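**Folding the chain**
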Amino acid sequence: MQPLTLRLPATSANLGPGFDALGLAMRLYLNIEAREADETSILASGRNADLVASLERNLILTTYRDLAPDAPHLSLTIENEIPLGMGCGSSAAALLAGVYLANHFGQLGLTRQQVLEEACVREGHPDNVAACFHGGMTVSSMQGREVTTATFGQNLPWRLLLALPAASLATEKARALLPDSYSRADAVANIQATALLVASFAQSRPDFLVRATRDRLHQPYRGDACPLLPALLPLGGTGDFHSVTLSGAGPSVLLIARENASKPALLAAIRKCAGDPELEVVETTIHTGQTDISEEPE
């Protein structure tokens, strides 16, 4: 069977108010080369290479085996740029990779839409998976197994900066911090902000972002577990920064900045506001296009 190569982007979900509905694909990638082998193996490089190379509790392999238990062993060569446990969509990329590998090597015959829906069901919500699958800023709705998506902002030149704290945060722990119910005022505020946020991407209106990224459903409850957020929020709408939000469930923070801003000035402002001159900040841009998949001839 022909080898398979995959290139799956990192994603930042929610973008403030779009809880479990909005996601943004970023130019940081999980790159995989896969081929049949006598025994399963992973050769990993890049960020968190030791965790990526582990054969135990590996989300890519678990998904592959769940869907195609009779498929062959694989030799995987992985180069990873996506931070793990930081709210950057590492699990969505891994789930999509596992489904794609099972579909190819297990000859499942799934359509692209079925690949998307299988990964969304396994993730439990569609925001990261849909953005990883489609690129750009993706709006997604999930009812049962049915996933509906729309994509905007594929060609926006906005700068993306990820501020990464030293410690990770499990999504399950971050979700446990949220209340069981919200007031009507909070719900209405988030509906309004989410609508404005979609318009800002669809119409290339960065001037909307500072208001459109205001959230009252999850960010106020995650501040203690994600202290970079309250530290950096004052940068939103000031200087060269359009907006500041948690990236997914955190703990990393996504800042959207003007495309012509000075990188040293941006980094200096973020680190000063965070009170940490050594804070890791990764600069990137919006990933465009669907997941890159190719079969290689032997």
About this structure: The chain has eleven helices and eleven strands. The radius of gyration is 19 Å. The first strand starts at residue 4 and ends at 14.
